[in-house]
Each structure stands twice: as C-alpha cells, then as structure tokens.
Structure to design on (433 residues):
C-alpha cells in the first residue's frame, strides 16, 4: 500500500500532463508567472509585464507586431530577436513549448 | 520532482524520521481505535437509555460496592487504557533516545540561520578559507550525520525537513541544535513551521542529499569566486548588479559583499529562487529581479524599476553565476 499510493498519484499526474492545456499551464507557471497575470494559472500574478487576460482579442503584441499565432509563438521564443532591449528575456523556450503556450493564450478572450 | 502532499507520512528517508514515523502511525491508529470504541459505547448507552424511557432513566442512584459488577468496570477500563498508554510511553522514550541528540561522531557541522523569509546556510572546513555561504538549498552527503546549528536572524522560525527529521525552532540570541542524516540520495523539501510574518508560507528550502563524491564536487564548486565578465554586456551587467544589488547581496569576487540577503555567488547552481517560491529559470528570475513584490508581497527585496536593457544586462550577468 505504501508503494501504491505514490504510484497512483504519479499515474494521476501523468494523465493530467497529456492534456496540452495542462502542459501549457505548467509551462506558464514555471516561465511566465513571475511577470504576467494569466487567467487559469493560479500562481501567475506577476506585475512586471502586461496582464495576458483577453490577449486573444488584442490587435498588437509588444506594441509593434500583429497579434497572430505565428508572431505570438516567435515572440515567446525570441523576444530579444524581435525587439532588442525589451524587458522580456530569452527564456530558452523550444518551438513545441512556445506553440503550446501560444495556443493556450489564444483561448483567453475574456477580460 | 514535485512530490504529493503529506508524502512524508508514507516513507522516511533519514535516521531520525525512521525512528518517529512508525510511532506516528501507531499513535494515530491507537487514537482512531480508541475514538471509535468510545463513540460506540456512548451510542450503545444512549440507545439503552432511550429504550428504557429516556431522560428519567439517567437519573441514577450512586453505585454501592455491594451492587457488584458495576464498579469493577471502572477498574477494567483503567487497566485496558493503561496498556496502549504504557506501550506508547515506552515507544516514545525509545524513539526520543534515537532522535534527541546529535551523535558524538558527527561528520559535519553547518550553520543555518532563519531570516524573513529565507534560509542562510554556512559551511565550514578545516581552514577558514573553506567557509562559504549559500541559501535555501542545503547539500549533505548521504550516510553522514550532519549537525545543524540553528540561529535566529530576526524572529522565531522553525526548521523542518519532514522526510528526514522533526522540527527545531530557530530563536534569536540562542543556538539550537538539530541534526540530519539521509540514507538515500534525493531532494527533500523543508519548510519554516513557526509563523514568522506575511511570507511565512513561502519560506521553504531544499535538502539535497548526494553521495560523498558528488557532495565534495559541489563543495569545491561553491568555494570558487564568481567568474570575471567576458563581454561588454556582461561587464555592464556586473557593474550594474554590484551597484544595485551589492548593498544587500554578496557575490564573492566582486564588490558586492553585503550579507543582508542571500549570497548570489552560485545562484544558478540552485534549483529554485526566493526560498522555493519560483523555479530557477530565466523567465522567473527576470520577473523576480524586477518585481519581487508581485510574487512575494512583503518580501524585504524591493521592486527594481529597471529599464528593459538594464534588466537584460543584469540577467545576462547573473546567469554566469553558476
């Protein structure tokens, strides 16, 4: 029984992490939460960058680029390449990870 | 590496917890059994009283010795209660004997100071030059008893690593002694368990138990000073960091030499920042440097109000502190 309980919990955690939304939320909690408010991620209460509530409805990201999926993915991966000197750092996020995060953010359409 | 909550009740990983965990389960089981029996007896009593006509029946007459069996139940009850009580007492004494004092031949002694809201850790060696400080991440070699001298930096905190050992308070003006011995390599979460102010809940730490060789490598790496900056961006980053952060933090090998906040010389070797509040990655680190009050309101580190370029330079330099 002692071994079974952690195993069950692990199995439960594994089930959750197959869900792309759950994976995106975990990534956001780890990489984005310190700077941004992100609805749906409890720990994302940062006050450095803009709140990402309603980002699906915004027209422009970083005050410069059209808010479409490709630009958002690229921005998450390489903000310094797109806008050198931006306070948003290069975070070493891979393309699949950035895609997951962007797809989650693009569902945030409520203020 | 996140572990399920309360997992330390399922298994122990250190000598002291090995002694207390079975006792915890035993007393828990005894308590539950006793509660169930008492509740059942009470329920039976209530049912009987009701069947016999309710409240009037409970207006009893005092038991007299010549009435026989009634009084003897008190003696039987006392005798039955004495058995688990005595067993618990003996077991508790035996467990205390295992956990109370540090073993005479301890392998290592470290100093841990509780601060609002982080843990300062100081290691010593044969020579004064072997002394170094780190924060919120305590490395220990496995199989070695490690004596932890606990100091209070400001208010009372309490040092607890559930999978390894019980709690010991850190009290200003007094040195308390705890000790840890891990049997298996692993990362064990610790937590302040004496309410110490607004960010008490975010005053965690980690104990990294590793084989003696790995520990020695870690120790040698920690003794190194920070590498000199190699590029113009890093030079600016270092100047800015020592100027802005050096009044509270120390980076050995630079002008930053204050001990008010955690030592940052090997910040990037740590798994978490801000006393396990955030994972240590560039995104979280940038957010923490710029606006600690956003993530940990009330923390003694102020918001920095850096421009984007300044933040980038600071971050680039801090990332070289491996």
């Amino acid at each position: 029984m002692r071994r079974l309980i952690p195993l069950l919990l692990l199995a439960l955690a594994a089930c959750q992490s197959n869900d792309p939304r759950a994976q995106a939320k975990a990534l956001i909690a780890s990489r984005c939460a310190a700077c941004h408010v992100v609805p749906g991620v409890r720990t994302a209460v940062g006050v450095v960058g803009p709140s990402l509530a309603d980002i699906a409805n915004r027209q422009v990201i970083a005050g410069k680029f059209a808010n479409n999926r490709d630009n958002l993915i690229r921005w998450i991966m390489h903000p310094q390449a797109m806008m050198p000197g931006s306070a948003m750092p290069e975070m070493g996020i891979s393309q699949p990870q950035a895609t997951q995060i962007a797809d989650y953010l693009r569902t945030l359409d409520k203020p | 590496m996140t572990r399920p909550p309360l997992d330390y009740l399922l298994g122990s990983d250190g000598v002291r917890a090995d002694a207390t965990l079975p006792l915890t389960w035993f007393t828990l089981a005894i308590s539950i059994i006793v509660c169930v029996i008492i509740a059942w007896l009470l329920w039976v009593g209530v049912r009987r009283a009701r069947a016999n006509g309710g409240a009037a029946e409970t207006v009893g007459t005092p038991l007299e010795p010549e009435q026989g069996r009634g009084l003897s139940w008190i003696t039987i009850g006392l005798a039955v209660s004495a058995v688990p009580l005595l067993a618990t007492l003996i077991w508790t004494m035996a467990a205390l004997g295992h956990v109370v004092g540090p073993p005479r031949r301890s392998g290592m002694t470290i100093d841990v100071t509780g601060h609002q809201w982080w843990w300062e850790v100081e290691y010593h060696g044969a020579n004064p030059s072997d002394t170094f400080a780190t924060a919120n991440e305590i490395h220990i070699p496995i199989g070695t008893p490690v004596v932890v001298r606990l100091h209070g930096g400001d208010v009372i905190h309490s040092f607890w690593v559930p999978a390894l050992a019980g709690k010991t308070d850190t009290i200003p003006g007094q040195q308390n002694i705890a000790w840890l011995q891990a049997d298996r390599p692993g990362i064990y979460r610790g937590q302040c368990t004496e309410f110490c102010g607004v960010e008490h809940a975010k005053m965690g730490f980690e104990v990294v138990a590793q084989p003696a060789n790995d520990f020695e490598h870690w120790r040698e790496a920690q003794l190194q000073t920070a590498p000199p900056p190699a590029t113009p961006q890093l030079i600016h980053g270092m100047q800015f960091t020592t100027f802005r952060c050096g009044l509270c933090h120390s980076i050995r090998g630079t002008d930053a030499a204050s001990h008010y906040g955690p030592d940052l010389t090997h910040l990037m070797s740590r798994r978490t920042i801000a006393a396990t509040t955030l994972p240590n990655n560039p995104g979280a680190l940038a957010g923490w440097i710029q606006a600690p009050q956003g993530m940990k309101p009330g923390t003694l580190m102020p918001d920095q109000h850096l421009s984007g370029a300044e933040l980038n330079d600071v971050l680039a330099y801090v990332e070289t502190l491996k």
